Amino acid sequence: MKLHLYNSLVRRKEEFKPVQAGEVGLYTCGPTVYNFAHIGNLRTYIFEDILKRALLYNGYRVKHVMNITDVGHLTGDRDMGEDKMEKGAQREGRTAWEIAEFYTQAFRTDIENLNILPPDIWVKATDTIDDQIALIETLEEKGYTYRTSDGIYFDTSKFKDYTKLSHQKLESLQEGARVEKNLEKRNPTDFALWKFSPAGVQRQMEWDSPWGIGFPGWHIECSAMSMKFLGNQLDIHCGGSDHIDVHHTNEIAQSEAATGKKFFNCWMHGAFLIIAGGKKMAKSEGNFLTLDHAFTQAGIPPLVYRFAAFQTHYRKPMEYSDASVQAARNGLAHLQNQVRQIAGNGVDREDGISSEHKDKFLEAVNDDLNMPRAMAAVQELLKSDISDGQKYATILDFDRVLGLDLDELDRPEELPAEVQELADQRQRARDAKDWEASDRLRDEIQALGYMVQDTPEGVKVIKK
Ligand code: AMP
Ligand code: ZN
């Protein structure tokens, strides 16, 4: 079955064809590690994880690179403002390096808790400064750069088709020039490749360069790293939808200007997580929730958030509310119980995967990662009248994409001591053929919120 993905470059779904048969180069823009990731950011990483798992499910080998932005991402959109890392360091009274290390670890914990497969290659921007400088030098040799008092800039008017990803009208961007503060820029869309450390200020993160001491602009790292680690396998590049107009547009301009070749064939973007009133969740809006705070500390398993993300197609805004979390919590618990039940019914995995159900699931996944439809296929499978063994084998196969740890549900759960004691008493009653006591104990166990199943291997007690 063919995989179709929506490519922002052409604004439609296309059949996915990698540069090299059977292999995919995947680049996902990573976090700026000056603060915790919020659950909006994490929505984007869940979408990218589904993409990666879908590629693996389709039999591709995937080489996945993710950057860690630990320098140079300024608070303003267009190269004005402070460096977020240095600002974070000031806020917390720690060094920029400590801040980067701390929030990188926090991010790794978040993605682990969401069962997001880690990239094959993690790259810190600060570990590839030389590559970024080399790329800027190439751009300079080819005449795409100019110098201002605060840095080296890319002249976007020299790159034809600057708006091919954003599909914006250049004239509307020119209008924005009036509010631009940087009067030295030749065009409002021009962006910094290298920024100079301000005179008389020693930054915590700064490097020598052919142009003077300073630090790289934000966009150059993703171009340098993707080309360094993926070579010619520039298949899919993703991020949140806010990256279309500036970050990814600039990545394309500088990369294609430097190499003269197409930079990534497919660009995919996830829509935003929004909260009541339609506002996007953003650090700058001060309305953000972390996974740790909103889920782990609130006693809600983080996988509930992963499950919640499946309810909305990745290109549609996802609304976050207490009610949507509660619905996802119930939905996941229900699914886990359904799977536990079939797992408990003396499953014979020899039954194999149901190709009919797999086809439906794959059709949904391969239709531009349509997870709401894929979840409907999951329910159709569980309600069908095929054998429990077949259902179980099939759902575990689906879980390669879902990533909900459904294979762990047949492992015995830790029961509370009280429930375990009643279960042991009931087993003894059954061994002694005392059916009256056995029934009474069953009722007692059920009253505590557990289900009792009598299987050939003995009594099984699972949470309702
Ligand atoms: P940042 O750490 O700010 O570079 O953002 C990391 C990723 O999260 C990027 O791909 C952003 O596009 C994405 N992102 C930011 N805010 C949201 C949001 N509210 N919903 C979904 N994705 C977001
Ligand atoms: Zn990027």
Instruction: Give the biggest beta sheet.
Output: 5 strands, parallel
Q: What is the class of the largest domain in the CATH system?
A: Alpha Beta
Beta-strand proportion: 15-25%
Query: Helix content range of the residues, please?
Result: 40-55%
Question: What is the CATH-assigned architecture of the largest domain?
Answer: 3-Layer(aba) Sandwich
Compute the separation of the termini in Å: 38 Å
Helix and strand content put the structural class at alpha/beta
Spatial order of strands in the largest sheet: 5-4-3-10-11
Q: Cα-atom Rg, whole angstroms?
A: 26 Å
Which features characterize this protein?
464 residues; alpha/beta; Rossmann fold; Four Helix Bundle (Hemerythrin (Met), subunit A); 3 domains; 5-stranded parallel β-sheet; 4-stranded antiparallel β-sheet; 15 helices; 42% helix; elongated; binds adenosine monophosphate; binds zinc ion
